[in-house]
Amino acid sequence: MNSVNGQPSTVNGPPTHPFGFAVEHTDGFSRAGRLALPHGEVLTPAFMPVGTHGAVRGLHPEEVERAGAQIILSNTYHLHLRPGEATIHALGGLHRFSTWNRPMLTDSGGFQVFSLAGLRTISEEGVEFTSHIDGSVRTLTPESSMEIQWALGADITMAFDHVVPGQASPELAEEGMERTLRWLDRCKVRHAQLGDGADPADRADVRQTLWPIIQGGIHDELRRRSLEGTLERGPWSGLAIGGLSVGEPKPVMHRILESLAERLPPDRPRYLMGVGFPEDLIAGIARGVDLFDCVAATRNGRHGSAWTTTGRVNIRKAVHRTADQPLDPGCDCATCARFSRGYLRHLFVAEEMLGLRLVSLHNVRFLVRMGEQAREAIRQGNFDRWSREWLRRYWGREEP
Amino acid sequence: MNSVNGQPSTVNGPPTHPFGFAVEHTDGFSRAGRLALPHGEVLTPAFMPVGTHGAVRGLHPEEVERAGAQIILSNTYHLHLRPGEATIHALGGLHRFSTWNRPMLTDSGGFQVFSLAGLRTISEEGVEFTSHIDGSVRTLTPESSMEIQWALGADITMAFDHVVPGQASPELAEEGMERTLRWLDRCKVRHAQLGDGADPADRADVRQTLWPIIQGGIHDELRRRSLEGTLERGPWSGLAIGGLSVGEPKPVMHRILESLAERLPPDRPRYLMGVGFPEDLIAGIARGVDLFDCVAATRNGRHGSAWTTTGRVNIRKAVHRTADQPLDPGCDCATCARFSRGYLRHLFVAEEMLGLRLVSLHNVRFLVRMGEQAREAIRQGNFDRWSREWLRRYWGREEP
Q1: CA distance linking residue A289 with residue B275, whole number of Å
Q2: CA dihedral over B196, B197, B199, B204, signed as positive or negative
Q3: What is d(CA B209, CA B271) in angstroms, rounded to the nearest whole number?
Q4: Within chain B, how many helices (H) and strands (E) appear?
Q5: In this predicted complex, what is the ipTM?
Q6: B86-129 confidence digits (pLDDT tens)
Q7: HSE-up of B289 (CA within 13 Å, CB side)?
């Protein structure tokens, strides 16, 4: 990551229309950008907290906003099953339903249904699956995914893709990649139809863009073909990289990102799906990624595992029993401003749910703030130094 | 409740020292008062939310404060077991530990250990019980209850009392009442010793008053003797009425309250323990009660059961699926200001913990606001009319 990638390092003007993106600064491959969306602007790099059930687990939308989150991700699969997109649409769409008034992205449901091993059948038409809630048999197709996401009404909707495991063979990875391209054609057609819908009132309410997903597993050639096929079907207001952080070794993920970084259109936002942990954010930003999402912030938080500027802390450990200091003295979140480790540990030991919430909030703020800090470092032209120092402090030694 | 009870209806000056109480207005038996405590003033009548584990279940102290709670109750039994009063004392006492900076009251642990049927042995010395957490055998005595509460450091500490079931025989009720008086002597001695403690730094930090508890079951004569015996051991800065709302019929509780209302010192605050539901608050205030506590607000909230100005609502019911209106259009809480019934129902159905929190918060605000409204009605001299109208709206008909 020592080369400069030839992207413009000059400052573009701010994006003037929804879905416009301006790269304001570059530093190596890393980029500081500005993405305009119907519900507001997103300064990148940025972490998107995940709101599985129309709420970031355990957190109030006001808390998520105060933590600095500019955009959240919501899950199409879960919301389709409960309460159903018709219910959400009847209550004014997902923004109004959940009272989250900032930008939002919905995934396609693809990742979830492909994860239902043994409970789903894949065909060219789509995926037939068994609901994990009531056992009902349902089908998700490129078209129905677009329809569900349209009813939900997020700013950014994701194409329905064929996801393969991280260590998939070239044959399986190729099959998934090719199908993802064919499905992208269908997604594009259906999404355009919805946008040209007969109900002008609906159309005015729901302004939404569609982003494609690059697949191809861990195979450079397949990734390259996926990107080319995707760009042929463009233009797109943004592109996502899927099928990473699903079991492959980290150096492999880094190699794929580096290969794509040189080929992705420099003037479009890049979203690395399902990533990540703090070190993954830094690795991704260093390789030109602008957007991230991951459930780890809240999932780890619910188990008492916190990221801090000096490494991970398990707040349940007895060593914190009478600890008066905050979870992370270097953190500016509402939890660290107010509560001691001793109190947080007590809440977890006593199974008081306030504890889950306080550590989840800390973790969300932690990743959001990393995006803010990385952005500032990029603007200052010292991302490399900043990230090295950040990781040294985090690991308590050189990066392993 | 048609008679006027002869208490002064003139306005006293504000209390000038901690633990001072001024009755500012009376209307029938009902009173609008002002209680000075080391951590602030409490305008009565007032509901105290319960913070079992040093947190009002599921709620952030900032939320509880914004809901208007002036004082909370914390449980000595639970905090003694987890994390232990030594841990809390080491972290600066319960106020600092929990970051609740307003007034606080701790119960004595008596109610909890007496509820451990089959797991506790009562003697004149105290109660030997088996921890519900780790099965360890422990003892709670009047002295140790005072010591634990001193270490916790609440503004108001409660005497360790012998609680009997709601329908206890006169013999058992008399035994409990007499023992409660003997234990009160021991509580008073130990509490005074702690207040005269050798460590002046401790003493400056922990300013705390002791309130006795009137027992005697459902027997007017025993209640009268309990009150007389208690007053002989005074003076007290406040008095509590225990052993009600523990299974006896409501009219019996009302009769006991009426009988006590005429005998309790008019210039001291009166706390009805473990009560109540909305209708119980009104019944208690009408009979001269100033303070209440109950876990129902948060316990019901966690099960999706909400009080509203027009009756109870079970938010889990399918009828709320696409309901766009707030839980209670007549409520000013943060939940009702922002979220629809449809969204709240979804959170409960999807088992998203934000739902538990939002309905708990509503219920807490609901009871706190009842106290505020009752106070205003008393000050206007129309408590009787206000409470009748309130109950008519709540029940949707005349009070049953």
Answers
A1: 57
A2: negative
A3: 14
A4: 16, 18
A5: 0.94
A6: 999 999 999 999 999 999 999 999 999 988 888 899 999 999 99
A7: 31
Straight-line distance from the first to the last Cα atom of chain B, in angstroms, rounded to the nearest whole number: 16
Please tell me the distance from the alpha carbon of residue B320 to that of residue A207, in angstroms, as a whole number: 28
Q: Write down the residue that tokens 């077991």 correspond to.
A: B81
Which residues of chain A from 54 to 73 reach within 8 Å of chain B, CB to CB? Answer: 54-55, 57-60
Catalytic position from the list A27, A155, A293, A328: A293
**Which residues of B fall within a CB distance of 8 Å from A78?**
350
Q: What pTM value is reported for the model? A: 0.94
Vertex B83: Cα angle to B191 and B189 (nearest 5)? 10
What residues in B contact A82, CB-CB < 8 Å?
A: 346, 349-350
> Per residue in A114-138, pLDDT tens?
888 888 999 999 999 999 899 999 9
Nearest by CB to A54, from B322, B346, B356: name it: B346
Structure token digits, residue B45? 């009548």
Cβ separation of A353 and B322 shorter than 8 Å?
Answer: no
Q: Residue A315 — φ and ψ, nearest 5°?
A: -70, -15
End-to-end CA gap in chain A: 17
Report how far residue B15's alpha carbon sits from residue A108's, in angstroms, rounded to the nearest whole number: 63
Distance (Å) from the alpha carbon of A340 to chain B's nearest alpha carbon: 7
| Rounded-to-integer distance, Cα A197 and Cα A193, Å | 6
Which chain B residue has its CA at the smallest distance from A302's CA? B353
Sheet of strand A40-44, all strands in order from the earlier edge strand to the far edge: A21-27, A30-37, A40-44
